[in-house]
Amino acid sequence: MTSKTKQIKKIPISVFFNKDQIPNKYKTIKFKEYSSYSVYKSDDKVLVNLSKISNLNVLQKNYQLLLIGMAIKNYCKSGNFYVDYFGNTKSSIKNFLLGWSLSNYTFDKFKSKKKDKNNAKIFHEFGEEIKSVSESYFFTRDLINTPANILGPVEIFQSASKFLKKFSVVHCISGKKLEKNFPLISAVGQAADDSKQPIFCEFKLKKKTSKKKVFLIGKGVSFDTGGLNIKTGTGMSLMKKDMGGAANCIGLAKLVSDFDLDVDLRLVLCLVENSISKRSIRPSDIIKSRQGSYVEIGDTDAEGRLILADAISYACENKPDLIIDMATLTGASRVAMGIEIPSFFCNNDDLSMKLIDLSQKIGDPLWQLPLWENYSDQLNSSHADFKNIGNSMFGGAITAALFLQKFVKNIPWIHVDLMAWARANKFSSYEGGEAMGIRALLELIKKL
Prior knowledge:
The chain has 2 domains: 11-120, 3-Layer(aba) Sandwich (Leucine Aminopeptidase, subunit E, domain 1); 131-446, Aminopeptidase. Helix content is 33%, strand content 21%. The protein is built from 13 helices and 19 strands. It has an 8-stranded mixed beta sheet with strand order 7-8-10-9-13-17-14-15, with helices on both faces. Helix 3 runs antiparallel to helix 8 (244-258).
């Protein structure tokens, strides 16, 4: 006698984008109403009505699909599911599936009492892709959420080394060698104690390739007090996330390796803690950069652009085809864009148009701000080549990008200014570190 394998009962999920798509037999069903969607669940089916978001543009529709996927997973709570109907070919079902997967994330290693896990599962054909993206998101979130008493520059480097299995370490520079070769990085981090000393490190994708060379550069300030221009208590409360650019770059590098792209990828991390001590840099100090230009410190809390400047100079020396830097750089960008939409700057119009298009199609928001050259005189210094901060309260994200552009030498360059943090909203109770823009940037790298 042979035994039959027990079949898993899977409940279909039908996703409708307008009321006309809903079959007549379901017209009398009473849906549970939420602000952006309606849902009905029984033992044998789940119906999701997204007519409330049907008039949104492609970017917002795809972005909300990810959030709705998270919400539906939490609504279903348990069981096995699959998407039986998806009523909009211009929107990506992958966003719904990724949102479902991301709802599994928890950061409770420092909680004595753990939350009960949601055991609902969804079956689909994109398993490996969703798993890969989720792993990068989870790593990025974990790194950002870990507090600075546990995660300093050395620990960020060690975490990246462990996570990036297909990469080798090319450089890990600290101490006197860092001071000589990366003076701005050294200066920003020199006030920290011995266990938090600054590091410049570079990883290289092991795969041999003759294709395009891409540099990813991540701002990794493990904690930012503001230096002698000290932040307020409120301003400092989230500063463990000031290494969010580095975390996102590590997550993006892992995705590039997972998708086996034919690209010579280098990951550069500038890892410091911006502390206060007798060794702190001061406002009005003048420091010679790796590039050779002299920078006057207008504000010690504008430290991220200083460490990125030396890293960008290093990348340019290697003559890559593209440089991408990611940084939690300015509050001005958050004032303009809010916390969910990273701004980006680009010195190549064709490249920026490609990224905008991919951002919309993927549903991973990135919004272009201008490298407005007429603001560059705000960086003028009476005693050095330029200052690290503008002399106006306006356009802070732009003047920060213009500062970085001074170190870019005729190479296509994208600068991403992101929050790297999510707050609880109507779709999810999660608050913490966040991956932002890396799916759109992955698609751009695919098309180089």
